[in-house]
Amino acid sequence: MSNVVFSAKTRTAFGSANSRRLRRQGRVPGVIYGKGDTVHIDLDGRELSGGLRSISASTIVKVDVEGTQHDAFVKSTQRNILDGNILHVDFYEIEMGKTLRTRVSLHIIGNPIGVRDGGVLETPLHDIEVECMPKDLPERITVDISDLNANQSIHVRDLTLGEGVRLVSGEDQVVALVKFAKASASAAATAAEAETAADKPAEKS
Length: 205
Known about the structure:
Oligomer: single chain
Helix content: 10-25%
């Protein structure tokens, strides 16, 4: 669990006009939902942006609403398509003593042997679903693919999840694989055929 804490104020005025007013003041409207009644809040925009850069989608943060703390995920953010500023944020509140089911992102590291030998890396899976107590939830799962040769793959069943974490996603799903590109193989074969033909003496008529 992270040490990220977002300070928020209770929001009692609603509607697009009030949201625009908050944003002009450098604040971001948001909500906390999931555990009990929905709590409408607003947060300092600069503090929110800075905190979001240090967490993942499965990081549990604390939202301090005028002294009352909520343990939650950052469920979603809405951003301005022109400048990237956050327009709204949703937090999903959890109970710390209760098992939760959520998705955890996969962090791929390493340069596979097979890629260095001319293969092509594919990473079709970006996260997996797990079940655990909040205290055991990993922020991300690191997958080292350095030793992956051509025509080899890593599956969900090969991942190290950590103590207390149970896999929910299908264990046969492919996380990463290295294969040779058909185009490259075809080009190599064509080049070899051309070289062989060039070495043959011309036939006399």
